[in-house]
Write a structure and sequence with these properties.
heterotrimer; A mainly alpha; B mainly alpha; C mainly alpha; A: mainly alpha; 2 helices; rod-shaped; B: 9 helices; 83% helix; elongated
């Protein structure tokens, strides 16, 4: 980028180091994204699990009332 | 307090002497692993000499690691660990006694057999004192740090791999300086710095590791 | 006086209070993280000049160095909150520690991979036993040990305390490990291997570097809160307030 004019293809070429630079930045993007996605998925999973447990307990309580 | 220390120490020694083969196993393992390297790499004397410090130290590390389970596992399973924790004596002292016993039963034999391995690996005679001193200062640290690891994993079933995952990274400084002491001594240079470092690490480990171990036992082993 | 402070701490460290509060806090970290990160990337990729020695490959440092800082920073945060959890029996601190570990491990991994990608043009190989890469590798093992212990012990309270103690032992050891690796490295440093020194850095490169470091820290703050909220839900799942809350979600 020494010239006055900005050129996208020289920018992406990274002076011949494109593979290393863009792999690094790409991997960073992936890892940051995973750090957001995984906890959100875990959250859904936990909520579903707790809801199921609550329902099971309610069912059991109702069954007890029936049998008693 | 001192009496409690001796009591635990003697008890562990006596128990271990009763099952002698178990006592020999880490030692045989140590010799066996070291003698694999000439077979795997080369019997050439100069190359063996180059590898020797690393090979001896890594093997010592592994055989201490394998013997760590003995430190608390059996006591945990038969309930005598609970009694130790209930005793009015400070747990730190009792832990220290157990670690001492462990070192006398595994670390010290390793030091004593090391000259034989030095011959196997064609370590020059000039490096023998460095080999012995570095093992003498380093192996107690391995027992002390290992005790923390065992006490954290004592209630975990099949915690063997977990134990090595926890303990091995913490062994790295001892490995670096221990192996380097032998290496430098083979070149005929002074190893004072390396031994002083090992001594400093030992002092640190003696004063802190039993506390961490006692805390860990209170966390994991109380039922 | 002390009792008042203690009561205050107890109030703010109750998982329920934290759960309500953190929901409001997260955007305050997440949005600045995105803005600062975007500006840092702009400066780092478009404005900062080409390095006269390393060419364009040096632009990897804008993520490598902040990631390496984060790997250590998060471990220290983890150990400090584990200590708080152990000493004052504050459960929230344990949850923060547990939530930090996977994030810290991912930053350590990132620092390792970007470090070797940065090193390849200079060393000619992807891996060299360079002091900093080796330290990062050991740090990654320390994170794995913490996470393995945390998941191996079934009882959650015991797992928190035991792995917390391990984190503290680790943090005491880190300077010793770091020093010995550094020392080991100077011994074995071959003449052919170019050392990965911190480049004497120009201000136009330093500013994007610091901005990226700040963005990573803000990102961590946001993500650790999200994860800690999960830990709260998981650990308090049989308490009534969690059940009532979850029915509404």
């Amino acid at each position: 980028m020494s010239g006055t004019e900005f050129n996208w293809s020289t920018f992406f070429a990274m002076g011949g180091y494109a593979v290393f630079v863009w792999t690094s930045y790409g991997l960073t993007a992936v890892i940051l994204a995973l750090n957001v996605i995984l906890p959100l998925r875990q959250r859904k999973h936990i909520i579903r699990r707790v809801k199921r447990a609550v329902r099971r307990e309610q069912l059991r309580a109702e069954n007890k009332q029936v049998t008693l | 307090m001192l009496r409690a220390f001796y009591h635990v120490l003697l008890r562990d020694l006596r128990l271990a002497l009763r099952s002698r083969h178990e006592l020999l196993n880490p030692l045989i393992f140590f010799v066996l692993v070291v003698s694999l390297f000439p077979l795997a790499v080369t019997p050439s004397e100069t190359q063996l000499q180059q590898m020797a410090p690393g090979v001896i130290w890594v093997s010592a590390l592994l055989s201490v690691l394998l013997s760590l389970d003995r430190l608390f596992k059996q006591d945990y399973e038969d309930g005598s660990l609970d009694q130790l924790m209930l005793s009015p004596n400070p747990l730190v002292i009792l832990v220290l006694a157990k670690v001492c016993a462990h070192w006398l039963l595994t670390g010290l034999p390793l030091v004593l057999i090391a000259p034989l391995l030095a011959v196997f690996m064609s370590v020059p005679d000039a490096a023998l004192p460095a080999l012995l001193y570095s093992l003498l200062l380093g192996t107690p640290v391995l027992s002390l740090i290992g005790a923390i690891g065992v006490s954290l994993t004592v209630a975990v079933n099949r915690g063997g791999v977990l134990l090595s995952l926890i303990v091995l990274p913490l062994y790295i400084p001892v490995l670096i300086f221990g192996a380097n002491a032998i290496d430098v001594a083979s070149d005929g240079m002074s190893v004072r710095g390396q031994l002083l470092f090992l001594g400093a690490v030992l002092a640190l480990a003696v004063s802190l590791a039993p506390i961490a171990t006692a805390v860990a036992l209170r966390i994991t082993a109380s039922r | 006086m002390f009792r008042a402070i203690w009561a205050w701490i107890q109030k703010f460290s109750s998982p329920k209070y934290f759960f309500e509060m953190s929901a409001r806090l997260i955007p305050w970290f997440a949005i600045p993280a995105a803005l600062v990160g975007a500006y840092g990337l702009y400066l780092g990729l478009f404005v900062a000049p080409t390095d006269y020695q390393q060419g364009e490959s040096y632009r990897i440092i804008f993520i490598h160095v902040p990631a390496a800082w984060m790997s250590l920073f998060i471990y220290v945060v983890m150990a400090v909150s584990a200590a708080i959890g152990l000493i004052w029996q504050i459960r929230l601190a344990d949850m923060i520690a547990a939530a930090s570990a996977p994030i810290g491990a991912s930053f350590t991994f990132l620092a390792l991979v970007t470090g070797s990608l940065w090193g390849k043009p200079m060393w000619g190989t992807y891996w060299v036993w360079d002091a900093r890469l080796t330290s990062e590798l050991i740090l990654l093992f320390l994170y794995f040990g913490y996470m393995a212990l945390q998941s191996a012990i079934e009882d959650q309270r015991t797992a928190d305390k035991a792995s917390g103690l391990l984190a503290i032992v680790g943090v005491v050891n880190i300077p010793i490990i770091h020093y010995s690796v550094e020392w080991w490295n100077t011994l074995h440093q071959g003449a052919t291997v170019a050392k990965l020194d911190k480049p004497s850095i120009d201000i136009s490169m330093l500013i994007p570097l610091l901005l990226m470091a700040l963005a990573f820290k803000l990102f961590y703050a946001a993500v650790v809160l999200v994860r800690a909220r999960n830990e709260v839900l998981l650990r308090d799942r049989s308490r009534r307030w969690v059940r009532e809350l979850i029915e509404k979600l």
